């Protein structure tokens, strides 16, 4: 990433996780700037990450070569228009991590500058994220590599050729953690209903979820084969899976992801 300076507009959890991930990967904190209206938040970030901080967005935008927009979608237009003249002058690579804010919107508010739009997910907060990236046509290969390095510092990152594919990314990995949390929540309640105390039920379910994910990640076979390996004919797992299948579990997952994608398209529109 050469010695270019990287700035963050917004010092929320995702921004600070990205900064922390970059520092952990060897990027010097002195190359990172971060702005936020909360001085208390900035003091906390500066102490934790040892990066430069400022309460002024323009102070950060006027210094850096890469600018990560990490503000809420409803704040994005105002933030961008306030920086438009600086963006026109400096032409930084702009990376947006705001859900539902399209490259077209960013172009209209910022003017002409290279733009990468990203869809990270909440496991990025613990360096276990999955992020989808889309680059506008004027983003160079070097800038694409830089964007992937930044987002890849908190997990894995994938490029997509068409921006509309990010709606599917949102439905799968962006919203996906909530699907697994719902299953964990339901399984904990089921364990309690079978007589396990709340603390034990929670620990057993979370460890089982973590273990299953680790097994799937490290295995040379797919989840379908792993499921079959756990399922003995006529056994306990087969009895449980039979209930899921009879209830249309697979169809429900398909419908849920489709609904999430449809909503993502509506918000982007």
From TrEMBL:
The keyword Lyase does not apply. One of its GO terms (molecular function) is pyrroline-5-carboxylate reductase activity. It is found in: Cytoplasm. One of its GO terms (cellular component) is cytoplasm. Pfam families: F420_oxidored (PF03807), P5CR_dimer (PF14748). One of its GO terms (biological process) is L-proline biosynthetic process. NADP(+) binds at residues 9-14, 70-73. Coiled coil: none annotated. Residues 163-267 form the Pyrroline-5-carboxylate reductase dimerisation domain. Keywords: Amino-acid biosynthesis, Cytoplasm, NADP, Oxidoreductase, Proline biosynthesis. It comes from the Bacteria. Its EC number is 1.5.1.2. Pathway: Amino-acid biosynthesis; L-proline biosynthesis; L-proline from L-glutamate 5-semialdehyde: step 1/1. NADPH binds at residue 57. It is an enzyme of class 1 (oxidoreductase). It catalyses: L-proline + NADP(+) = (S)-1-pyrroline-5-carboxylate + NADPH + 2 H(+); L-proline + NAD(+) = (S)-1-pyrroline-5-carboxylate + NADH + 2 H(+). Residues 6-100 form the Pyrroline-5-carboxylate reductase catalytic N-terminal domain. Catalyzes the reduction of 1-pyrroline-5-carboxylate (PCA) to L-proline. Belongs to the pyrroline-5-carboxylate reductase family. This is Pyrroline-5-carboxylate reductase.
